[in-house]
Amino acid sequence: MQQSAVPELAHTQTRPIHWVATATAVAGVVALSSVVQPGSATAAQTAPATRTRPAPAAAAPPSTTGVAFPLQCGPVKAIVVKKTTGDLDGDGRPETVAVVHCDAPMGTPPDGVYVLTRSAGSAKPRVVATLVDPKDRFTVTDFAIRERTVAATLLGYSSDDVPSCCPDVKTPATWRWNGSAFLRSTPAGAHSV
User: Least C-beta-crowded within 10 Å: which of 17, 21, 39, 149?
Assistant: First the structure.
């Protein structure tokens, strides 16, 4: 067996003083790391200044407040019972579609469905189309705009003998703008309630 040319080093034997020195060094590193913090991280990169254009402001849909709906209510007022908004003609400005009926004290008043728009230079909304005329005696349910199409379910009557309280015909209907008018389509399968 060959003897080592290097004498045994003193630190190869652990003594209590070594443990105390190591613990003191670790405590110093921990204390120093709590005082010295790195700067806050950001995702921004420094680059040459570029000009960005703000996104165009979204146009507000027309309000139904103060609109004179083409509805004859006599001594009671017309009330908006449902409304929804969407860009029906693809011009980038939303339209409002409102279901309106007379605020009758009893019974089931028929609904009218009206499309409201606002000219580019005007703040006042106006009625541009009647989708359902109250004279037709429909009550509107399941009302929404989906993919630039107005969809509703119309509850109506098979004859004048059916009382107003109890519609007996249920008809789904959709309206889509064709560039000059709203075209109504009725899926097959209108049925009695």
Answer: 39
What are the structure tokens assigned to 191, written together? Answer: 């049925």
Question: Where is average pLDDT lowest: 135-139, 154-158, 188-192?
Answer: 188-192
Kindly provide the b/e burial profile for residues 29-64, where b requires at least 16 CB atoms within 10 angstroms of the residue's own CB. Answer: eeeeeeeeeeeeeeeeeeeeeeeeeeeeeeeebbbb
If pLDDT is split at 50, 70 and 90, which confidence band does 122 have? confident
47 vs 45: CA distance, rounded Å: 6
| Percent helix / strand / coil, the chain, rounded to 5 | 15, 30, 55
Vertex 57, ends 67 and 90: CA angle to 5°?
65
Q: Which residue has the tokens 């541009």?
A: 128
Q: Is the pLDDT of residue 47 over 60?
A: no
* CA-closest candidate to residue 63, choices 121, 127, 11, 147: 127
**Closest by alpha carbon to 79, among 108, 99, 63, 96?**
99
Residue 11 DSSP SS3: helix
Q: Which residue has the tokens 């007379």?
A: 102
The radius of gyration computed from the CA coordinates of the chain, to the nearest angstrom, equals 37
Q: Which amino acid is at 24?
A: T
